[in-house]
Amino acid sequence: MRLKATFTIELEASDFVEAARHQRVLEEKLAALRETFPRSQLKIVNGRERRQARPAARPINPNITGRLHAYSD
Length: 73
Prior knowledge:
By secondary structure, the chain is mainly α. It has one helix and no strands.
């Protein structure tokens, strides 16, 4: 059986120097974790907030005009 465990840690850093300090601390903790789980990995991503995507506008059907059709006999 293969299992995968994921830890998520959200950090705030005012600049790259502070971010590097956070990374060093995480790497130290990872070294301790690797004693028990040697295949442990650290992945750091920039978690910028994404803008809310606007929903796509529905295409207008040119056949729907809101008018009654004139039928001829």
